[in-house]
């Protein structure tokens, strides 16, 4: 952990757990959202005990949720020092971007060749409609959620279950950078237009256009990397 690591701060108040739903999933989702929303900032120490109190939960589901976040690269545990929200790594971001691009381009190529089912179109359009509503409301958090749903729907439409799992894991390395980049309605509008262009090309079975539109869209995140680093140097290793 770099010398500039911050250890102050506390876990933000969390919503009451719904005992009718998997507790681990709820804790994991809430903590991930807090990290992406910078309620838990890079370098901040996190405590199993404090998280358990925040959720009124036992340690076992907290540990499982932290394990999943560790697998995502969002937290790191250092022997004899504790657990921290991980800092951003330019090397890791570029690696995750390379893998994500390869996987998603393969996915849209497959979809252009096999076509979309009515169910797949419904899921994709639901995500796009969610983005439109979030943009209109100025809700960046909801916009990110529906952004993720759009990409997940494309992956799910291929029928390759492992592909969706791999994409979710690789995207985790980019999620915080994306969250820092979505700053205003104009930016959300550009992302939405890019999603619509990809979807239109896939529906038209125009593989070359779909691949080109998707590649430009996915590389946008690297285009803002230097700007994010300049504005938030303390968030990086």
From TrEMBL:
Keyword DNA-binding attached: yes
Keyword line: DNA-binding, Transcription, Transcription regulation
CDD domains reported for this sequence: WHTH_GntR
Domain HTH gntR-type: 21-88
Database matches in Gene3D superfamilies: GntR ligand-binding domain-like, Winged helix-like DNA-binding domain superfamily/Winged helix DNA-binding domain
UniProt keyword annotation of tRNA-binding present: no
PANTHER family in UniProt: GNTR FAMILY REGULATORY PROTEIN (PTHR43537:SF45), TRANSCRIPTIONAL REGULATOR, GNTR FAMILY (PTHR43537)
Protein name: GntR family transcriptional regulator
Organism of this sequence: Rhizobium helianthi
């Amino acid at each position: 952990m770099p010398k500039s690591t911050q250890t102050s701060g506390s876990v933000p108040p969390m919503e009451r757990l719904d005992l009718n739903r998997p507790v681990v999933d709820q804790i994991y989702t809430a903590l991930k959202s807090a990290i992406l929303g910078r309620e838990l900032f890079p370098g901040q120490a996190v405590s199993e005990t404090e998280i358990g109190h925040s959720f009124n939960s036992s340690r076992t589901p907290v540990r499982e949720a932290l394990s999943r976040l560790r697998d995502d690269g969002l937290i790191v545990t250092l022997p004899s020092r504790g657990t921290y929200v991980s800092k951003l790594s330019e090397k890791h971001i570029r690696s995750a971007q390379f893998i994500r691009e390869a996987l998603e381009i393969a996915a849209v190529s497959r979809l252009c060749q096999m076509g979309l089912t009515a169910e797949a179109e419904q899921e994709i359009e639901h995500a796009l409609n969610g983005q439109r509503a979030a943009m209109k409301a100025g809700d960046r958090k909801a916009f990110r959620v529906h952004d993720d749903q759009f990409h997940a729907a494309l992956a799910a439409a291929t029928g390759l279950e492992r592909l969706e799992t791999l994409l979710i894991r690789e995207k985790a390395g980019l999620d915080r950078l994306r969250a820092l980049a979505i700053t205003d309605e104009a930016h959300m509008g550009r992302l939405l237009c890019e999603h619509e262009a990809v979807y239109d090309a896939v529906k038209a079975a125009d593989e070359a256009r779909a691949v080109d539109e998707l590649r430009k869209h996915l590389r946008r995140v690297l285009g803002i990397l230097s700007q994010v680093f300049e504005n938030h140097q303390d968030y990086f290793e």
